[in-house]
Specification:
alpha/beta, 11-stranded mixed β-sheet
């Protein structure tokens, strides 16, 4: 199966490559105003005529300055070429020149920290729709924070490029940009004092499967059926392609004649791939992520899950596929992957259960077992009546805390709220232990702890009293003499008050697996 998959992927990649080039061209992700990742080799790639020699030169913008780096590369038989810039420390601005039969000159280039930001509507949600938007937009004067927004275009085939450009952050450019990404980047900028590049590729209402490359699904045995779906879709497309090409050739001839005779024009025959949709596996990876690969990045942010609400721990398998897949195609090892745990919300609809959301919370928490991952908990900053909470500032800040601590080595940063670790039964009570207690545990409103429940052997949960004892929580109820399990925040409307003293909320959990 793997060999078949590789064959199809290789064919499709070849099929989507431009074969004839009159001029040297670059993907739009490589452009003026971009931020290139500091402290690592940076891939530069593009297209030209087959066999054409391409010169790549990097230099300071100072007039008359000597080039800092220069190299040449020869385009292959398909016209593709690829090379790398050497690792550079943060700074700039620089000029990048790419020369062959023509010369491209990219200006105002910085080296700094680059993050790709993806997901559904809560990642897409704009600064203009976030809390305090007027003040935030007015204050957006950060020329060293650069923005790149990928257009929302699905594809059944791997795409090489997108229609987008890099922009400096100003009041004119920030309004429609991802609020979570911007507030994350701003927090990093103020703490690291280096240029920040933010790549927003997100689409409201989308599931996780369209964002995942085939390599990701192939890495998770539980998702074998999706791998088969992708292979079958590609096989069907290839099987139908010869006839589709004939139909298009006939249409071209008929249309040329119609233009000459002023006759009625007809629609071109449909040649779309069945995966060319924002709801189909790989459809958004192909069109909105693959064109960014292998642009050097520090890490990725992810805010999605509402559209996979009813899947429970299966969502954990799909998160593994997404993370594994992106890491494989980028080829940068286990780069940081930080994600947002969904906020409480009263999901309605037919056959809705108030426990669907806690099961997604559980799946997201389980994903922390993957190396170099982190999760921002948002149970205290949601809106039970709005699936799009306006407080995106704290979401971005909490993601940035993970990055500052785990990626940038700031050992003075508390970056997570309490996460359940273990339990012990002590008579008629259960004692809970936690990771990430920070400088201590507390209730954020100085009231009794909320949303703790306890159950005996009958597996019936009832509201319980929870008290802080050092860095542990003791849970009990007068009506449960022999407790066996505890759950916390196990309801879609739960907005618990349990936090560490740094104000970061505890993630919902259950101690059982009934």
């Amino acid at each position: 199966m793997k060999r078949i998959t590789l064959f199809f992927l290789g064919f499709l990649l070849l099929f989507t490559q431009p074969f004839v080039h009159a001029e040297v061209t670059l993907p739009r992700i490589i452009g003026s105003n971009m931020v290139l990742q500091r402290d690592m080799e940076v891939p530069i790639w593009g297209w030209a005529s087959a066999g054409e020699e391409i010169e790549i030169t990097l230099g300071a913008e100072d007039e008359g300055a000597e080039p800092l780096f220069s190299t040449t590369v020869v385009a292959d038989a398909e016209g593709s070429w690829w090379n790398t810039l050497p690792a550079m420390s943060a700074g700039g601005p620089y000029i990048l020149k790419v020369s062959g039969s023509n010369t491209l000159e990219l200006t105002n280039i910085l080296f700094g920290e680059v993050w790709i930001c993806s997901g559904q509507s809560n990642m897409q949600w704009s600064v203009s729709a976030s809390k305090d938007s007027e003040a935030e937009i007015a204050a957006a004067d950060y020329p060293n924070i650069r923005l790149f927004s990928v257009p929302r275009v699905p594809s059944g085939l791997l795409q090489n490029d997108v229609e987008a450009d890099w922009y400096e952050t100003t009041s004119e450019t920030i309004a429609d940009f991802s609020a979570v990404a911007y507030y994350f980047g701003r927090k990093l900028y103020k703490n690291l004092d280096v240029p920040i590049g933010l790549i927003n590729t997100s689409w409201g209402g989308t599931r996780i499967e369209p964002w995942t490359p085939p390599a990701g699904f192939a890495s998770v045995p539980a998702l074998e059926s999706i791998s088969k779906e992708i292979e079958e879709a590609h096989a069907t497309y290839l099987q139908q392609l010869p006839q589709k090409m004939k139909d298009i050739e006939v249409w071209i001839a008929d249309t040329r004649k119609a233009l000459e005779t002023d006759a009625r024009l007809t629609q071109m025959p449909d040649n779309r791939h069945s995966l060319r949709h924002q709801a189909r596996p790989t459809g958004l990876y192909n069109g909105m992520v693959h064109p960014l690969v292998p642009y050097a990045i520090r890490g990725a942010l992810w805010y999605q899950g509402e559209s996979n609400l009813r899947e429970g721990m299966l969502y954990h398998e799909k998160m593994k596929a997404l993370i594994n897949g992106w890491r494989e195609v980028w080829g940068q090892g286990d780069f940081p992957f930080y994600f947002v745990q969904l906020a409480p919300f009263n999901y309605g609809g037919q056959n809705a259960s108030p426990f669907f959301l806690p099961q997604i919370w559980e799946a997201q928490t389980a994903t922390l077992a993957l190396p170099n991952t982190g999760m921002a908990v948002t149970t205290d900053i949601g809106n039970l009546r709005d699936i799009h909470p306006r407080n995106k500032q704290d979401v971005g800040r909490r993601l940035a805390l993970w990055a500052l601590a785990k990626t940038y080595g700031r050992d003075d940063v508390t970056y997570s709220g309490p996460l359940y670790k273990s339990m012990t039964v002590e008579g008629n009570a259960i004692r809970l232990s936690f990771d990430y207690v920070g400088s201590g545990l507390m209730a954020r409103d100085e009231k009794p702890l909320t949303w703790f429940e306890i159950a005996g052997e009958d597996k019936q949960f009832i509201a319980a009293e929870a008290t802080i004892d050092g860095n542990t929580i003791v849970v009990s109820s007068d009506t449960v003499a022999n407790p066996v399990a505890v759950r916390f925040g196990w309801h879609q409307s739960a907005e618990p008050n349990f936090v560490n003293k740094e104000g970061l909320p505890a993630s919902p959990f259950r101690t059982h697996r009934w």
